[in-house]
Amino acid sequence: MEKKGLIRKIMEEMKVEREIEKTGAFETLVATIISQNTNDKNTERAVNRLKSEIGLNVKSILSADRQKLIECLKPAGLYNVKIPRIIELAKRIEHELGDESKLDSMNDEELRTFLSKVKGIGPKTIDIFLAFRRKRDIIPVDTHVSRVSRRLGIADKGDGYFEIRRKLEDLVPAGDRLKAHFSLIAFGRKICTAKRPKCIICPLREECPSSKQFLSPLQ
Ligand code: SF4
């Protein structure tokens, strides 16, 4: 099977249908920071708490009580890391842009430059923002996407973020890339897991160059 076929098969098997809720630019960025190293359910709980108990806008975040922020972010974990990132983002927006609505008037490159100055906001978070909020046809590369791509031989071991993204995007038809992103994540969570991938039930085990390694009785 050619490499294009591998991604197509993953998309068919995972049957991911996901609607992206349209939220404000600041809210989308905060939700993306909260989602780092946690699952969708816990992200949603923390975002909802933040919205109902503090309000999810720059001013409310900057005037919020620290303890209250901790309580809101607790369901998503790593609040000691995530709260300073959210506060730094809010401060930069207030000091450098004056108003969060300016985020929407920046072009993609201006936005990329602005956001990459914020500690903890890297290319993945920016790409998620661009794909979710601006409907850009890109494949954000998270830990699952990266692992699956390497195991399947789509990406090489030494490839960096943009190299993996480019290789994946070359294999996925325009218009299908966000679906490919979600499908690869679902596949990485359910089948090609970080520890003990389930090669025995994997629909790609015949084509996958890593399956022998994981199916070996010595593993
Ligand atoms: S065969 Fe194993 S390593 Fe290869 S994609 Fe499937 S689960 Fe992952």
Q: What is the class of the largest domain in the CATH system?
A: Mainly Alpha
| Head-to-tail CA distance between termini | 26 Å
CATH topology category name of the largest domain: Endonuclease III, domain 1
Domain count: the total is: 2
SSE order in H/E notation?
HHHHHHHHHHHH
Q: Approximately how much helix is present in the residues?
A: 55-70%
Low-confidence stretches: none
- What is the count of β-strands? 0
> Can you tell me the CATH architecture of the largest domain?
Orthogonal Bundle
Q: What is the residue-averaged pLDDT? A: 93
> What is the rounded Rg?
19 Å
Strand content: under 5%
For this structure, what is the CATH homologous superfamily of the largest domain? Hypothetical protein, domain 2
What is the approximate shape?
globular
Mind describing the biggest β-sheet? none
Main structural class: mainly alpha
Work out the helix count.
12
The kinds of small molecule bound in this structure are: iron/sulfur cluster
